[in-house]
Fold this protein.
Amino acid sequence: MVDILENEHVGARLKRLMRAAEPPVTVERVAEACGVSVQAVYKWFDTGKVARKHIPVLAELLKLSMDALFSDDAASDSAAIADKYEFVTRVRGAVLSAGKGKIVWEHEEIDNSHAFTRAWLQRKRLNPKNCRIITVDGDSMAPELRNGYVVLIDTADRDVRSGKIYALTYDGETLIKRLFRLPDGSLEIRSDNPLPEYRAITVRPQDLDRVNIIGRKRWHSGDDD
């Protein structure tokens, strides 16, 4: 029989502490470390029921003692988060395609699910008002960006720097790709995945109006910087 820690405040506190970690701890990272599904972690948030065997792992991820991990000082947590962190809007209901043929941005549901320290944002020269957290769909950018990862996009950074990763639309399709400026003025849209179905696209100078740069990728799940 699994030994379960059950407390109605556990789920909300765990979510707050994950947001407040430096860098933030994602649901995907918790699921991988604990050997459970992402859906199981979301269920912890909803029910407050967590198997005790996971507590040491969670404490290590969040850099807290096991006693401090599930104390009831929620007011203190909220004050600390508000003082040190900025929330970045997560776009829900719109999936950023890193595969083929998926048209997105059908609608947006806003949920402030990720918080970053002001010091980190300042070091990266990021204005949270210009940033969006988006979910990656597809494996064309694997291994750096895998299906289900989340990325932070700086919508104020749209000037292409060769070799950097950007969110963009091309012929109405939303993509996340590595971009390169070519000597003749063309733009190469390249995937990291070497499989042949993810071949590069070269957009000639006269066709660049088919490309709209949404912003540059500045952070992703599992990125400790």
User: Anything to note?
Assistant: The mean pLDDT is 80. The chain has seven helices and eleven strands.
